[in-house]
From TrEMBL:
This is Methyltransferase. It comes from Urochloa decumbens. The keyword Transmembrane applies. One of its GO terms (cellular component) is Golgi membrane. Pfam families: Methyltransf_29. One of its GO terms (biological process) is methylation. InterPro entries: Put_SAM_MeTrfase, SAM-dependent_MTases_sf. It is a single-pass type II membrane protein; Single-pass membrane protein. One of its GO terms (molecular function) is methyltransferase activity.
Length: 589
């Protein structure tokens, strides 16, 4: 009897399955619909190559709000460095050039258009020397800096000869002179900070020596200088030394540089030099070329008396001595100081205890006021030379200065992200090529995504959100990578269309109940180039909400399963931004 019952049940379920498989059953229609909406195997509708149109309709038909384009006048809109808003703030200490983000009711809820004629930037290294005029149509620098070899206009492109105010013969020759004093060739110097960078030729030519430079300059009368830098494929952000601390952790940079950056280093009790000291690694170098160096020759050109010009340099020398920096070079227009590798004894002998900052965490800097005090030096980290530094265990982890992160955690994180990046490369075979030069990681963690992706054809801006439980940006810099702090409830300090690819790991889960998903996606769209790609990794529920929003933003998307199979709740959303530019019809409407 048991055998007969079992055989009967088997036959019943066989017939039921055959009926559903035939397509006439309701169960199969539901399954078919689910499969159509969550197909996670191929990406027939996504095109990663650069061209001006993406043919074919998106098979994922979803009901969503269509977000309209903004007016063409917003094509270069930088929400937190808006020129009109800046004028309402005081000019003292460059306050008006700092970040001043729009209130909630002032935010734009539209898509920033590319200017008419926008084209894909040239691949690196050609992009270092040429930028299409249509992408950044500003000629003022070609006139203002004509004799300094910054930039030239030729036909329909800008040409960058590699010159600068203090290196009219080219950045390469200038860097050769620095290399006679600073070890630029052996991997000792990997991360650099360029204050008041212009069009970032210094950082562009340091890449030949495998050095990553974080360049920054304000959005000011030198129109679009940071935009030019990023169009060239060089890391840069809009920023200024004003009243707020720089968005970088302490002891981050191996070298800092100012080439006629016009920062009043001697003012405010040496506050700006003290901020450079905070972010400069023990044993690091500070280069100052231009005023007030070589004052005896140039004081009349600077419209200063001999006494004033000499006094400025004398005050800088005194501040450097107070910071325990040793002057190791001065010739003509260039002076170089080196921060002592261990300045404890120096500060004790000189009685600097009263000048030390009282802050407990020197990396807690987001919107924190700059102070005229010396950051306690701490112990000098023993860093390996690059590229060994990229995979070696960072000193902050080894010394127990990264709470909750062990050596084992670090090794596991590296392995995990190698697997993840291999998956991305299977989906998008152009990843790691010059197709994606400027890459942003919105929630960088330990920097393992950038480390796994490491390629001379691209660089990664590693962002550590200010709302993260763990502050890992110092670890990222110890690996020889660069990045910044940022709160994604606000706009990033960059121009529109400056990144080729954006990666986000659990960004939207991190910002749940903190700010609007649509606002974050609109900011991503603003900084993403036409035909740029987005890779998001998050829970399936979160990504379905994101996918619903981006379907109304001229993005094409596909949801993929986790590498370990469909039962893992974490999924991957791959998106490509369509190519489109401002049209007369949209502007008139």
């Amino acid at each position: 009897m048991t055998i007969i019952i079992v055989m009967g049940l088997c036959c019943f379920f066989y017939i039921l399955g055959a009926w559903q498989k035939s397509g006439t059953g309701r169960g199969d229609s539901i399954a078919l619909r689910v499969n159509q909406e969550t197909d996670c195997t191929i990406l027939p509708n996504l095109h990663f190559e650069t061209h001006h149109s993406i043919s074919g309709a998106n098979p994922l038909i979803m009901t969503s709000k269509v977000i309209e384009p903004c007016h063409i006048r917003y094509s270069d809109y930088t929400p937190c460095q808006d020129q009109n808003r800046a004028m309402a703030f005081p000019r003292e200490n460059m306050t008006y050039r700092e970040r001043h983000c729009p209130a909630e009711n002032e935010k734009l809820h539209c898509l920033i258009p590319a200017p008419k004629g926008y084209v894909t930037p040239f691949p690196w290294p050609k992009s270092r020397d040429y930028v299409p005029y249509a992408n950044a149509p500003y000629k003022s620098l070609t006139v203002e800096k004509a004799v300094q070899n910054w930039i030239q206009f030729e036909g329909d492109v800008f040409k960058f000869p590699g010159g600068g105010t203090m290196f009219p013969n080219g950045a390469s020759a200038y860097i050769d002179e620095l290399a006679s004093v600073i070890p630029l060739a052996d991997g000792t110097i990997r991360t650099a900070l360029d204050t008041g960078c212009g069009v970032a030729s210094f950082g562009a030519y340091l890449m030949d020596r495998n050095i990553l430079t974080m360049s920054f300059a304000p959005r000011d009368s030198h129109e679009a200088q940071v935009q030019f830098a990023l169009e060239r494929g060089v890391p840069a952000v809009i920023g200024v030394l004003g009243t707020i601390k720089l968005p970088y952790p302490s002891k981050s940079f191996d070298m800092a540089h100012c080439s006629r950056c016009l920062i009043p280093w001697e003012s405010n009790g040496g506050m700006y030099m003290m901020e450079v000291d905070r972010v400069l690694r023990p044993g690091g170098y500070w280069i100052l070329s231009g005023p007030p160096i070589n004052w005896n020759k140039y004081h009349q050109t600077w419209k200063k008396s001999k006494q004033n010009a000499e006094g400025d340099q004398h005050r800088i020398e005194n501040i450097a001595e107070m910071l325990c920096w040793d002057k190791i070079y001065e010739k003509e227009d260039i002076a170089i100081w080196q921060k002592k590798a261990n300045s404890h004894l120096c500060h004790q002998m000189n009685g600097h205890a009263s000048k030390m900052c009282k802050v407990q965490d020197a990396d807690d800097v987001w919107y924190k006021k700059m102070e005229s005090c010396i950051t306690p030096p701490g112990e000098a980290a023993q860093l390996k030379k690059f590229p060994e530094r990229l995979s070696a265990i960072p000193p902050r982890i080894l010394d127990g200065h990264a709470p909750g992160i062990t050596e084992e955690d670090y090794e596991e994180d590296n392995k995990l992200w190698k697997k993840h990046v291999n998956t991305y490369k299977r989906v998008n075979k152009l990843l790691g090529s010059s197709r994606y030069r400027n890459i942003m990681d919105m929630n960088a963690g330990l920097g393992s995504f950038a480390a796994a992706l490491d390629s001379p054809k691209s660089w990664v801006m590693n962002v550590v959100p200010t709302v993260s439980e763990r502050n890992t940006l110092g670890i990222i810099y110890e690996r020889g990578l660069i990045g910044t702090y940022h709160d994604w409830c606000e706009a990033f300090s960059t121009y529109p269309r400056t990144y080729d690819l954006i990666h986000g790991y659990h960004v939207f889960s991190l910002y749940q109940n903190k700010c609007n998903v649509e606002d974050i996606l609109l900011e991503m769209d603003r900084i993403l180039r036409p035909e740029g790609a987005v890779i998001l990794r998050d829970s399936v529920d979160v990504l379905n909400k994101v996918r619903n929003t981006v379907s109304g933003m001229r993005w094409k998307s596909k949801l993929l399963d986790h590498e370990d199979g469909p039962h893992v709740p974490e999924k991957i959303l791959i998106s490509v931004k369509e190519y489109w530019v401002a049209s007369e019809e949209e502007n008139n409407s």
